[in-house]
């Protein structure tokens, strides 16, 4: 799928927040996030992914359905023994509702993309140690 320009713009005009045990970190596509470095070192990982299960294929769902989908994602992450932290994506314009998400440590790009696909997402945010956060389309 070639991303629609408005969808690409929406992802790029969003701040992705993660709540770590001792601080809240803001992630922006194309920018490095050195604030995640201590957590990555502590968990001995070189990558992370910011993933949601809410509003699959950018179709807004009722809050209860999004909660059910997030619970399923959290259960899957727990079963796989992955370390993850709660987060949310908040668009700059305020036109799209805040989307609860998770920052997952230690997934490689293929695993993260597959997880996004499994949960009906067009894209995920992916990062590596000391590199800018990147938007990754799940179907590529």
Which structural class fits the helix and strand makeup? alpha+beta
Number of strands: 7
The rounded Rg comes to 14 Å
| Number of helical stretches of at least 4 residues | 4
Mean pLDDT: 94
Strand order of the largest sheet: 2-1-4-5-3-6-7
Shape: globular
> Main beta sheet, described?
7 strands, antiparallel
Strand content: 25-35%
How many domain units?
Answer: 1
Low-confidence blocks of residues: none
The arrangement of helices and strands along the chain is HEEHEHEEHEE
Distance between the termini: 8 Å
**Which bin fits the share of residues in helices?**
25-40%
Write the layout of secondary structure elements.
Layout lengths: L4 H8 L1 E6 L4 E4 L9 H6 L4 E5 L11 H17 L4 E8 L7 E7 L3 H10 L4 E6 L5 E4 L3
Antiparallel strand pairs: 1-2, 1-4, 3-5, 3-6, 4-5, 6-7
Key traits:
4 helices, alpha+beta, 29% helix, globular
How would you sum up this structure, described in words?
This protein is globular. The chain has helices spanning 5-12, 37-42, 63-79, 109-118; strands spanning 14-19, 24-27, 47-51, 84-91, 99-105, 123-128, 134-137. A seven-stranded antiparallel sheet has the order 2-1-4-5-3-6-7. The chain is built from four helices and seven strands. The mean pLDDT is 94. β1 (14-19) and β2 (24-27) form a beta hairpin. The chain is 29% helix and 29% strand. It is of the alpha+beta class and 140 residues long. The chain has one domain.
């Amino acid at each position: 799928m070639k991303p629609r320009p408005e969808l690409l713009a929406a992802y790029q005009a969003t701040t992705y927040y993660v709540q770590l045990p001792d601080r809240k970190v803001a992630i922006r596509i194309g920018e490095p996030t050195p604030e995640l470095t201590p957590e990555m070192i502590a968990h001995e990982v070189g990558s992370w992914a910011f993933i949601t299960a809410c509003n699959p294929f950018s179709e807004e769902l009722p809050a209860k359905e999004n909660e059910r989908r997030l619970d399923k994602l959290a259960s899957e992450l727990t079963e796989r023994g992955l370390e993850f932290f709660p987060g949310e994506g908040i668009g700059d314009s305020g036109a799209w509702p805040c989307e609860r998400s998770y920052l997952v440590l230690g997934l490689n790009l293929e695993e993260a993309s597959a997880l996004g696909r499994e949960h009906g997402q067009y894209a995920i945010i992916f990062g590596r140690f000391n590199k800018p956060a990147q938007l990754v389309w799940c179907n590529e």
